Amino acid sequence: MDSAGLPRRKALLAGGLAAVAGALSACTAAGTPLGAGTKARPEAAAPNAAPATPDAAFARLMEGNRRWVDGSLQHPDRDPTRRQLVAQSQEPFGVVLSCIDSRVPPELLFDTGLGDLYVLRTGGQAVGPVVTGSVEFGPVTGGTPLIFVLGHQRCGAIDAAYKALRDGKSLPGNLKAIQQALKQAYDQVAKEGGTGDPVDRMIRAQIKLTADDLRANADLAPMVRKGSVVVVGGYYSLDTGKVEVLTGAPAAAATPSPAGTGAATPGPSTTPEPSGTPAPMGTMPMGTMPMGTPS
Hints:
globular; two-stranded antiparallel ribbon; 10 helices; 7 strands; alpha/beta; Beta-carbonic Anhydrase, Chain A; disordered C terminus
């Protein structure tokens, strides 16, 4: 063995190992797989800027709903980068007051991301001081430009309240507080009469009444008059996934084109969706609520 050449070979070997280590480090930093069992992490998309105006916030929500309807969901801002970005502070662009129904999750049906919305959910969008105060929080403390009252087709809470009020009964336990909160909508439908499913008409009345009450709220009304906040009421179709706007859509609102070309399309249609069939009560006695469809 040539002992004189040994140090030189060791030096070459050390240099080669260093080069390999450097190459592996570079591959790891670039997200290149290190082996067959290791997958590269996709780069996080840049977070979407929060809409700053009522028109832009409304357009963002309705474009998300269009994606939900046609199945072209983007699932924006739902990654570790977004989680870290909003961990210390938040800037939601909308407040959504919706029903507790498990089939009506606002973040999904508007295809929004983490930190985009303040969401409140009560049976039949019933409101009271605590709920109203929670709705006020975003606009009053952070300038949130949009409040969206979202009711939905075949609402079990409103169906139960309608039948209990019609028959002079009371729902059990604290459900009677929901019944009482929905009485104004019931009284309006009973007074106006009309054709079609009375429960669906009560659902729509509750949406409009709640939106009207929020617009007249002592703390929100000045912002509504100024134009810094809008209160919109919408009806969600369980059958189609579409949100039908009933009241309050910004007159100048336009939705960005799905192709992302920057072109604008007119705001959403207000053509009524089919009301469908109200939640079945079966042979249950009045005064009890169908727990299979709580909202």
